[in-house]
Amino acid sequence: ADGTVEIPVVVNVIYKTAAENVSDARIAEQIAVLNADYGGTNTDASNIPTEFQTVKADDVKVRFKLVNTIRKSTSKTSWGTNDAMKKASTGGLDATTPTNYLNIWVVGKMTSQGRTILGYATFPESAGLWNDGVVIAAPFFGKTGASAPFNLGRTATHEVGHYLNLRHIWGDANCGNDLVADTPTQTTANYNKPSYPLYNTCSGVSRSVMFMNYMDYVDDAAMFMFSAGQKTRMQAVVDASGSRAGL
Ligand code: ARG
Ligand code: ZN
Ligand code: CA
């Protein structure tokens, strides 16, 4: 009644080693991180700089509820971004009704063009398709036993942001457009743990960069906010007339 949408989640774990077979406790921990970050109750929200407090999304009004965990053992050691993990016929697990459930696949290791990747997601244009959902590599899923500096569950927060229509905050181009007005235009991605304030210049305008946004590339401990504009974009996807209304 308060407009909060609770998204049912199916976690599909495809593992080779015991470490890749993430525990139920770790899955619960990951869901709790999503709920805190989307609810704006993450404790590190206290680090949001004063200048961005007026544009922070207090509560995105999206929550997550684990409804099923499906596990499958595999002999495959590494996966790519070609969606093989999303089909039984290619060694993966078929999605559970993606129109109605957010499917998250956890695989042991993922690479793209020879580099390790943390995760990837489909945008709302893929709503309901067989490959719709989020993939996270096990070392970056949940918190306990995860790999620093990506061990606070924020890879899922970031990927679910894409799933709910958010672009990278730098718009994937030099001074690109993320289609959100209240996130300051920034030249490029930020990494590691930048120190605030960080300025950059686009079209001759110097701006303080919102590098602590979940849709930048900083370490898990350095990201702790969505903006109000990002909330509006995500709400448009899950509301009754949105492309993910079936969730
Ligand atoms: N590189 C991935 C992507 O573009 C995920 C980045 C997640 N960042 C993090 N601090 N966990 O979707
Ligand atoms: Zn991303
Ligand atoms: Ca922007």
From TrEMBL:
The keyword Acyltransferase does not apply. Keywords: Disulfide bond, Hydrolase, Metal-binding, Metalloprotease, Protease, Signal, Zinc. Residues 97-239 form the Peptidase M43 pregnancy-associated plasma-A domain. One of its GO terms (biological process) is proteolysis. GO terms for molecular function: metal ion binding; metallopeptidase activity. It comes from the Bacteria. Belongs to the peptidase M43B family. This is Pregnancy-associated plasma protein-A. It comes from Chryseobacterium populi. The lineage of its organism: Bacteria, Pseudomonadati, Bacteroidota, Flavobacteriia, Flavobacteriales. The chain holds residues 86 to 332 of 335 of the full protein.
